[in-house]
Amino acid sequence: MDIKFVAPGEIEAQSMAMITKELGDRELDPKEAPIIKRVIHTTADFDFADNLVFSDGVVDILQEAIRRGATIVADTEMARAGMNKKKLASFGGHVECFMSHQDVAAEAKSRGITRAAVSMERAAEIPGPVIFAIGNAPTALIKLYDLIGEGRIHPTGIIAVPVGFVNVVEAKELILRTNVPHIVARGRKGGSPVAATIINALLYSMP
Amino acid sequence: MDIKFVAPGEIEAQSMAMITKELGDRELDPKEAPIIKRVIHTTADFDFADNLVFSDGVVDILQEAIRRGATIVADTEMARAGMNKKKLASFGGHVECFMSHQDVAAEAKSRGITRAAVSMERAAEIPGPVIFAIGNAPTALIKLYDLIGEGRIHPTGIIAVPVGFVNVVEAKELILRTNVPHIVARGRKGGSPVAATIINALLYSMP
Q1: How far apart (Å, rounded) are the C-alpha atoms in residues B87 and B85?
Q2: Residue A15 in 3-state DSSP?
Q3: Between A192-204 and B192-204, two packed helices, what is the crossing angle to 10 degrees?
């Protein structure tokens, strides 16, 4: 096994070519393909070619919202760290993450619920288009589902890609049942980098 | 599929119990087990039960270094964001990430190498025990390998878990050849959350 020097600017293109090759003759929707491939690039896990579920027209809807300066709500600082905030800002958008706010932690503790759930209530007060990018906390999705059902929140879209074991599969299935435009990583897999990657893939493939 | 309410403080324990159960009668080294399980918890990917390679005594060595206030060098802000910096600080340690330093970007560009490679040269100047936690850039590992060979750097340990396609497998194999204590995720898989998780698992299982 030899290391071949690859110029920094060519590493991503070469990775993408390897992914395209390994996907073989699999037919991907042309709007979904850049997102699926970038998630595989981030995870080296081809399971995402099967796991990712896109609601009708979701890519157009989310990109249009980003163009109008949508706020992205992340459920972890890791996801926020991975998003291209500069590119987002060029459209007037930014990323919010309420998880580390001290009053969120205090309220979560006193109510016996997760910080992620409290964060979603905070997010319900954000004006303008909002895209949720949830890569960690299924409780965030459960709270979102409830708030949507109660008519207390009207997200432009939900990226539902938490990873894990407890209520993760179930919480994603809840989001699949909503009428809110969504991209969901069905099953246990996902994560903060997947959430960040989907936002970045949307940004990089803006028409 | 029903959502069952799980108290926030019990979600992790319940996840870990599920992981232990699904690992079945697989025998794990007692020092390695908390790290392997926490990586599976982070990724929902049982491949890591096979992929993670530990050099002899590495867990003890890294924990001892942390106790002496080791500096952790991360190759992404995402990995840094995921590490428990408070717990690390309780031992006098902190996390460095040179990737976003402006002069690193400028130098990388002028030399035609990656920021990650330049970052490793910067890291070579850090005094005291240093643990590298590399979850993204194989070029960081290649540069580390060269600096070790040249005697210009003497890391206490290397966590070598980049994810991806171009030179990722090969760069990890280089680290496996060194005498530096290491934890390596063999193959393509890994990532910033895996790097952060291994640091956290070391912190949480300090004897």
Answers
A1: 5
A2: helix
A3: 160
Q: Do A193 and B191 touch (CB under 8 A)?
A: yes
Instruction: Say which residue the tokens 């690390």 belong to.
Output: B88
Q: What is the CA radius of gyration of chain A?
A: 17
Q: Is A185 helix (H, G, I), strand (E, B) or coil?
A: strand
- 3-state SS class at B44: coil
pLDDT digits (tens, 9 = 90+) for B84-131: 999 999 999 999 999 989 999 999 999 999 999 999 999 999 999 999
d(CA A44, CA A38): 10
**What are the counts of helices (DSSP H) followed by strands (DSSP E) for chain B?**
11, 6
At residue A75, the pLDDT reads: 95
pTM of the model: 0.94
How many CB atoms neighbour CB B58 within 10 A?
A: 23
What percent of chain A is predicted at pLDDT more than 90? Answer: 94
Helix (H) / strand (E) element for A69: namely: none
Question: Which of B158, B156, B159, B166 has the alpha carbon at shortest distance from B194?
Answer: B159
The answer on pLDDT for B32 being more than 80 is yes
Residue A207, pLDDT score? 86
The answer to whether the CB of A189 falls within 8 A of the CB of A169 is: no
State yes or no: is B41 an active-site residue.
yes
Q: Which of A21, A39, A75, A166 to mutate to test the interface with B (most CBs of B within 10 A)?
A: A166
How far is the C-alpha of A83 from the C-alpha of A70, rounded, in Å?
A: 14
DSSP A46: T
What is the torsional sign of CA A164, A19, B132, B186? positive
Within a 10 A sphere around the Cβ of B101, how many other Cβ atoms?
A: 15
Token pair 């330093």 in the structure block, residue: B101
**Residue of A4, A6, A10, A11 to mutate when probing chain B, most B C-beta within 10 A:** A11
pLDDT at residue A163 is higher than 90: yes
pLDDT at position A1, please? Answer: 64
DSSP label of B24: T
On chain B, the residues whose CB falls within 8 A of the CB of A191 are: 42-43, 191, 193
What ipTM, to 2 d.p.? 0.91
Report d(CA A49, CA B111) in Å as an integer. Answer: 37
Residue B128 to residue B154: CA distance in whole angstroms: 10
